[in-house]
Amino acid sequence: MSWLPGPSPNPYQAEGGGDDPFARPPDVFAPPPGFEDDDIPTIDDAMLHGEVDFEAGMSAFPLFSLGLILACIAVFVCQVAGNGLEDAKRISAMGALDPDLIHQGEIWRLVSATFMHGNFEHLMSNMVILFVLGMACEHGFGRPQYLFLYVGAGLFGSIFSLMGSRLSVGASGAIFGLAGALIALFWRHQNKLHLRDRRIGVVIGLWAAFQIVLGLLNPNIDNLAHFGGLVGGVVLGLVLRPAVLEGRREVAYHPLTLSAFVLTSGCLAAASVFFIPRLIH
Length: 281
Known about the structure:
This protein is mainly α. The protein has helices at 45-49, 63-81, 88-94, 99-103, 109-112, 120-141, 143-161, 172-188, 200-217, 223-239, 243-246, 248-252, 255-280; strands spanning 52-53, 193-194. 60% of the residues lie in helices and 1% in strands.
C-alpha cells in the first residue's frame, strides 16, 4: 500500500474557502516579543576605524603622580620648618636652582629645585595641574616612562632656566613638559586615539600659551623654565612609546623603558644624597 500526502494548507486562503490575492503574507522578519530598538548594538566611528578610547581605564588615583605630589608637599613642609622661605640666601642654601653654584659643580640642583616652591599658593597651583596632567600622562605612557618624562622635562626646564642667571624653584618646568608630551601624543597618534572631546589638546595648548604670556608680564615667573619644560615634553612625547596603544606590560618591560627607569631612579637618588641633608639641616 502506498501513501500520498494530501495538499498543504494555503496560508493565504480566505475565510469560506478560496485564495485571497490581497492577503498580507506573514512578516518573517518581525522582531520577537520584548525586543526593542534600543537592544540593537550600534557601531561608532571609533569601532569603524579601530581607535582606542584614551580615557577608558584611566585611574582616578595615579600612583606616581600622587607620589610626586607628596614629595613636593614634604619638601615644602621642610622649607617652612627650616625658614627656607625667608630670603633668597636661605632658599638657595636648601637646594634652589642657583646658576652660580651649579656652575661650580652642584648640578644636583637641576633636580632638587623642581621639588621646591616659593610659597603655599605656588605649591598648590602646581600640584593641582600636576594631578590632572599627571593622571593623563601616567595613563598614556605608563608609569616607568612617566617618571622618566617628568624628571626629563624638569631637567630641560632647569637647563633653560640657567640662561636667566637668577634663583629659581618650582615644578612648573616639569608640568609644562607633561602638557607638551600630551600634545605630542595626541598629534602623533590622532588616527589611533579616540578622545571623547577632541578639544582637549587645544585646551592644553591654550593653557600653556596663556601661562607663558602671563610669565612675560610677571618678572617673578621663570618663563625660561616653562618654555624649556614644554620643549622637552614635546620631544619626549614624540619618542616615548604609547602604552595606551601598545600595552602597558609590553612597554614597561621593554629594555629601553627599563633602562630609562633605572637612569631616572639613579638621578633622583643621587640628587637626594645632596639635597635631603641641606633640606633638614
